[in-house]
Amino acid sequence: MLFEAQRAAPSHRILVFGAARSGTTWVAAALAKQSGAALVKEPDNQYMHPYALRAKSQLATRGFFPRLAPDEDREDADDYARLWTAALGMTHPNPAVASAEEFRRIAARALQKAGSIATIRRVLTGREPPNAWIGVINALAAPSRPTPGARTVIAKSVYGLLAAGWIAAQCRARVCVVLRDPRGVIASWKRLGWLGRPGFDALDNVDEELRAEFSRRRGIPEPGRDASPLERAAWMWGFLNRELLEEASDRPDWKVVRLEAIAADPAEGFRGLSRDLGLPFVERARIDRISRGYRIADPASPSEQGLTADEVEAIARTTEQFDLARFTPAVDAAVLGV
Residue 325 pLDDT > 90, yes or no? Predict the structure, then answer.
């Protein structure tokens, strides 16, 4: 890349993956409480970072969740690769262009915020072609980067679950997968209005061909259009996590953690997680500060979650098809609600 110089990469590069509202922000932030650590939040989020919009606009995969095999080499993924290598500190702009890149990043973000989130969603899901507004954002966009000189860089993603192995290979990074009980995840999506509406719901954010291929391969039928947005969201949760855990099961160096287990004893949980990821232990006082006020609702209490009994049953009925407990001892049926 003409305008980038290769420098010494950070000595520790950690990727934290998990479905949205699974606790990835908390886990990544706690791990980043190291001396000299830098946290990069969701560099692939098309709503937060213009370069993510640019990179995903060029991919053949529609939707928010690119699918790339670990050894796949595709021309349409060049910008997606640059997004991640920049976020993990693998490349740096030459001093002569660093200021210009920062200006482009700020300008693109201002333009993105002034537009319509709904338009971004429709474009990336293939419901309408990119317009001039998207084109200008893509032309200006520059990738997100960590704090210069950071020895440890931690990046979290809720959209890279279907390309986790590919991203880890590009960045030569270690991986932490965060799982949360689906009742808690879906309840949070419901409160935030993320389930969508009949005809255009959360599952539509995933490429239709990917869903169909997975359904054929795994023998897990995709819910039809007559299913509720909640059931379709629960299927999406199962699909994303099944693919992610399938990848993790072949990689003993990846660490899979349950949010409920970490939340039960944050200091001890993060002590073990830091050790397993090759990071120095975060002092208890720091963990206590970042965990103060953090609480997850009891997944066994529908009223606390804000779910009806019928909704809890629908989530369990949908997610039990994916048999996630078979992949790792860290995932048990009680926690996953199956």
Answer: no
| ∠ CA 155-157-161, rounded to 5° | 130
Count the Cβ atoms, other than its own, within 10 Å of residue 151. Answer: 15
Q: Kindly report, residue by residue over 151-202, the tens digit of the pLDDT.
A: 899 999 999 999 999 999 999 999 999 999 999 999 999 999 999 999 999 9
Lowest mean pLDDT among 64-73, 196-205, 256-265, 285-294: 285-294
| Mean pLDDT over each residue of the chain, to the nearest integer | 89
Record the pTM: 0.92
Q: At what angle do helices 117-124 and 132-140 cross, to 10 degrees?
A: 90
3-state secondary structure labels for all residues of the chain:
CCCEEECCCCCEEEEEECCCCCCHHHHHHHHCCCCCEEEEECCCCCCCCHHHHHHHHHCCCCECCCCCCCCCCCHHHHHHHHHHHHHCCCEEECHHHHHHHHHHHHHHHHHHHCCCHHHHHHHHCCCCCCCHHHHHHHHHCCCCCCCCCCCEEEEEECCCHHHHHHHHHHHCCEEEEEECCHHHHHHHHHHHCCCEECCEEHHHHECHHHHHHHHHHHCCCCCCCCCCHHHHHHHHHHHHHHHHHHHHHCCCCCEEEEHHHHHHCHHHHHHHHHHHCCCCCCCHHHHHHHHCCCCCCCCCCHHHHCCCHHHHHHHHHHHHHHCHHHCCCCCCHHHHCC
Query: With respect to CATH, is domain 4-336 assigned 3.30.450?
Result: no
Phi, psi of 179 (to 5 degrees): -115, 140
Task: Please report how the helices 132-140 and 50-58 are oriented relative to each other, as an axis angle in degrees rounded to 10.
Answer: 110
